[in-house]
Structures are given as structure tokens and as C-alpha cells.
Amino acid sequence: MKKTLFIIFLFIQVQSDAQITLPKVFSDHMVLQRDLEIPVWGNSAPGAHILAELGKSQATATADRNGKWKLRFPTFKAGGPYELKISESGKPDSEIRLKGVLIGDVWFASGQSNMEWAVQQAQDADQEIASANYPEIRLLQVAHDQQLTPQQDILSGKWKVCNPVNVSQFSAVAYYFARIIHKDQQVPIGIIQSTWGGTPIESWTSRDKLLSAAVTQKKALANDTLSQQHFVKDSLDLIRFWDIVYHPQHNTDKIIPEPKYDDASWPVVEMPRLIKDFGIGPYEGMLWLRKKLILPESFSGKELTLHIGHPEMNYSLYFNGKEVCKTKWNSEKNHSYPIPAGWQKKGENFVAIRLAMLWSGGGLNAPAEDMYITDGAARVPLAGKWSYQKDLEPGLPKIYNYHYYPFLLFNAMVNPVIPYGIRGFLWYQGEANESEAYQYRKLFPMLITDWRKRWGQGDLPFLYAQLANFKKVKPLPSESEWAELREAQTLTLSYPNTGMACIIDIGAADNIHPTNKQEVGRRLALNANKLVYKQNGTASGPLYKSYRKEGNRIRISFTNVPASLAARDGKKITGFAVAGKDRQFHWAKAAIAGKEVVVYCDQVSDPEALRYGWADNPECNLINSEGLPAIPFRTDNWKGITQK
Fold it and tell me: Which residue ranges does the record assign to the Sialate O-acetylesterase domain (predicted)?
């Protein structure tokens, strides 16, 4: 009995001595939201009376039985810096002081890799980083984390002042957006970045919301089989995964590239070619390739240049057993390398490549004429027969990527930030949901309504980037998952207080991460200035409004045409296709008629449907007088390829 009473006493003593703690979203240099009763919350001993001071304003709260408390300061105008002081009544030594606090506009930036893509990875990185001195822009980067239950605090992260040191690894899109809004509105700007590459929208939506809809209920319930141990094992396997990719195993890099290595039993494949064309089935692992070259006598004693084209994924390159480059990614620009004069031999020479075959990709992806070795005058082609072999190194462990699973990122990277006062949301995501494009019509509004309800600030502005053009240009009109996903994004504009940046003109066929993030940030800022800050101007390109048939022609009307329409290149308008009752689309001709476009096709006498920019990577060039691209659209509602 005495022991039990002693334990109870100790428990009460520990609880009563509990120190005040704040979530990591509160730190020095933070930005708090102006024109809003500012929420601040934390933990302390149960029943503790909390005193808080911000500038000349004070607020109080009493901790509940679990030690949780929340208070609100009255509204502030933009300004600062202030100091936030929080203490427990009667305990001056409990005081927390946060310095350099500004009052301004806070934006929550989220999504997958194109929102995560850092300033240092994007266009003009060196000069952008060097000039990033904006002491009134503050950045908070939420650390990657995944949890089975909603968390009260982020894993790590703190507010940082925007400068060349801090900006390099921050979201390029969010930074460029913040820079424009800061200059235009002349107020401090805070960005909370919560992003993770490759993630579907379901990862960012709460469990309760996912369970409320038939389209997502089954996926959400499947997570009930998970435990924290799954995450731990996956994390350890991921370390091993990248160790194999970046570090050749079993001394293969010392053995296989050697000219004397015997590859006579290896299969042979014609290059250039991607893994899906190898005939070896779906394979993820390290693949070795070798090619024998006979160099002309004229190459003797010269420094050569080896052009390897554009290898897919990650690779290392060797010439006559010597390492030319190691673990280079396909996203890097230069894939040409000098070969010192002393490396070549008379007669037979050997090129070897160690390729990481990842995520169903891999191979040598380039026109054959871009693969060669040269002395500057003559060329020896590298296209043709290559010997290859897999499984010469340990297999890559299977990675389950639990951060792709429903609601786990919401729990760890969104919920802990709620209800921090914000001005609105920035969103760039959708690539991971391309096969669910039709469902995205429901999934996207679900996330928007979910977040708005939980923040409790009404219909907070939700600004998002539409998917850019990507993948190979197709010569004929065809169906497209990416086009259907873009359509779902456009349809979401019917929800209140939403704005979309169309970027159909700044993507890249071979890069899912287009580098021109400045323009993405600018177009999101155009939407913010019009929708949120109520400035005059045009925030978007032409948006399809209606059509009417005139014989074999279709006349299209648009909104967001302040003055006129034009073709971006000043030539003929491209990107339109029409179909008759047979539903076979043909490229169409188009002519501008005032603020409308007239479309026709000699092969379709009685058009039933019209589409514009309807492709993965459409060649479309219609713009308004502000230079903003027309948003892809279709007039039909025929069943798409993602509609189950």
C-alpha cells in the first residue's frame, strides 16, 4: 500500500513539475498570420495557468487534464519583429521566449516532388541562391515522417530567415511564389513546406475523410494491418537499397570493366533500348553492360570524348577498366566524358556501364547517333550490340514506400501544423495519381474540404499547379491519363476560392521535373494577387466556356481573354483535334475570330467533339494577351481510359 501511494505521489509530482513545451511549428523567426486571432498551443502540467505575451498583447489559457492548452491573441497588422513570451503563472523560470517573430501572411505549401524540388535543383540555381536575401521571408521545412495515428508535433523543422544559405534546399515553387507576393504586397511572408516526392493525394488526406467515401474506404482500411515495425524495416531496407545503388558490391567495379573479363556467355542486346524492351521482364537491380570497340589508328595518342547519349536512371561508366564517372543521374545535363590519351589500347577497347534499373525504368535512352566516341574528327558508334548481365550483385531489397499509403503523411506532416494561422494553401501534385485521373475528380476536392474544415478558417484559398506537359509527343491524337488528370484539376475550379496555374507550356518531354520553377511560382502568385489580394488583372490563360456548331466548324468561346487571343509563336494555332460520330479524332485547323476560335477539319464533315491540348505532351500554343496559355479541355464526355 505504501509503495502504491509513493508511486502515485511521484506521478503527481512529475505532472506538477512538467515544463511548458511548444510544437516545433513555433520557433524563433516564425511568421504569424495577420488579421486573424492568432492561435498558439502547447503542453504543460495539467491545470497550469498559462500567460502569453506578444508585443503589447496578452492572452491566457488553462491546461486541461492532459496538460494541453490553447490560446488566441487578438488580430495584428503586418509588422514586427516581436518577441513571444510564454510562461506558467507563478513560475518565472518556466518562461519560453521566441525572438524575431514577424506578422504577415503564411502559406502552407504541399504536394509531391515538383513542389519539393529545391532551388538548388531548379533553373538558374547559382544566381537565384546568391540573390536570395529577403529577411522578411521565412521558411519552415517539415521533415519527412509517416505515422499510423495523428501526431501533435512534427518530427523536426524550424523557421529560418530566407538567405543564400537557407534557401538552397527549400521548395523552388514556394520560394518564387513568396518572393513575388512579398514584393507585391509589402508584407512578411512565411512558407510552411510539407512535401514528399512520389506521393499520391490519398497520403495527404485524413483517415476520417478517406473512410467517408466509397472510392477510398477500402484503401484506408487496408492500413489497419500496418505497425510501426513495418516502417522501421522499410527504413533499414531503404538504406541497404541505396547502398547497393551507389556502391558496387563484390568488387564488381574492379572486375567486370577490365578488358580481360570474359563476357562470352552473356546475352546480347541492341542499344539504345530501355529495360521494357530488353525481353528480361520487369527487373529492378543492377545491370552490367559491356561493348567491345575497335578504334582506328588515327585515334592513337589522342584525348577522346565519349558520348553515352542519355542513360536512363543512375549509371557508372568505365573505359578499359578505368572509371570515367560514378553514379550519375539521367537528370544531369552532360553525358559526354573525356577519355585521356593514355587509356586507349591498340586493337580492342572496352566500354562498360553499371546501370541501376529502378522503378520499371533503365537502359540507354537516346538516338543512336548520340552514342559514339570521337577524336574530334572521326566517330566510332556505340550503338549496336552490347553484352549484358543481371544479378551479378545482391538484389535490391523490396521497398514498400509506406509514405505512399493513405493518410500516413497527413498524420505526421499536416495534422501537427493544424490550426496554425495561415493565409492559404499552395499545392503541386497529381503525377502519382495519373492512373486514377477519373477518381481524382473526387480525391482532390476531398483533400481541399478536409484541410479547410480542420483548419477552421472557412474556405481558405487553395491555389494549385496543373500538371505540366511531359512524355513523348505523339504524332496523332490519342487518349491520355495526364490529360484526364488535368481535366480533373480544371473541374476543381468549380469549388469556391480555388485558383489554378496552367503550365502546359513549360514542361519537358524527358523530365518529369521541369526546371522553370520561377514561372510556376509566378503563375501561382498571379492567382493569389487576384483571388486573395483582390488586385485587378488576369490570373489565368483562356478557359473554355462554350461552343457552337456552324456547319462543319466549331466556334469556341473562352473566359480570361482580357483583350485578344494569339498563337505563342506567331504562327498557326496548334493543339486542336475534332471527331465525328465514329469518335476518331483528327488534327484540326484553327483560326482566331476576335475573342473566339473557329476550328474545322477537312476529314470531319459533321464534328461531334473537339479537344484542345489533350495529350501527355501536347503541342498547343493558344495564349491570351497576357501570354498565359489556354487551359486544355474537351467538349465531349466520352468515357476515358482511367474511368473504371
Answer: 105-224, 421-525
Domain range for 382 is 246-390
- Asked if residue 11 has pLDDT above 70, the reply is no
Residues 625 and 548 in one domain: yes
In a 3-state reduction of DSSP, which class is residue 195? strand
Q: Are 469 and 434 in contact (CB under 8 A)?
A: no
Residue 97 maps to a domain: yes
What are φ and ψ of residue 181, in 5° steps?
-65, -40
Asked if 304 and 270 count as a contact pair (C-beta separation under 8 A), the reply is no
Q: Which among 623, 527, 508 has a CA at the least distance from the CA of 567?
A: 623
577 alpha carbon, distance to own chain's centre: 30
What domain count does the chain have?
A: 3
Type of residue at 566: A
Task: Please name the residues in contact with 548: beta carbons below 8 A apart, sequence gap of 6 or more.
Answer: 554, 555
Q: Which three cell numbers, joined as nine digits, stand for 147?
A: 505515422
Residues 76 and 182 in one domain: yes
Select from 296, 298, 332, 300 the least CA-distant residue to 314: 332
Helix (H, G, I), strand (E, B) or coil at 519: helix
At 48-105, the pLDDT tens digits run: 999 999 999 999 999 999 999 999 999 999 999 999 999 998 888 899 999 999 999 9
At 532 the three-state DSSP class reads coil
pLDDT tens-place string over residues 377-423: 899 999 999 999 999 999 999 999 999 999 999 999 999 999 999 99
pLDDT band at 277 (very low <50, low <70, confident <90, very high): low
Report the alpha-carbon angle 595-519-571, nearest 5. 40
For residue range 146-172, list pLDDT tens digits in order.
999 999 999 999 999 999 999 999 999
Tell me, what's the pLDDT at 17? 59
Q: Are 380 and 313 found together in one domain?
A: yes
Nearest Cα neighbor of 470 from 613, 577, 615, 366 is: 615
3-state secondary structure of 165: helix
Does residue 133 sit in the same domain as residue 49?
yes
Asked if 111 and 259 sit in the same domain, the reply is no
Of 390, 423, 446, at which residue does a domain stop?
390
For residue 121, the domain's CATH number is 2.60.40.10
488: nearest Cα among 426, 544, 434, 543: 434
In contact, 104 and 31? CB cutoff 8 Å = yes
Q: Is residue 479 part of a domain?
A: no
Residues 261 and 181 in one domain: no
Q: 250 with 334, same domain?
A: yes
Q: Rg of the Cα trace of the chain? A: 29
Same domain, 29 and 175: yes
**Residue 42 backbone dihedrals phi, psi, to 5 degrees:** 180, -160
CA 541 – CA 523 distance, rounded (Å): 10
Domain C-terminal end among 363, 390, 417: 390
**Residues ≥6 apart with Cβ < 8 Å to 449:** 209, 495
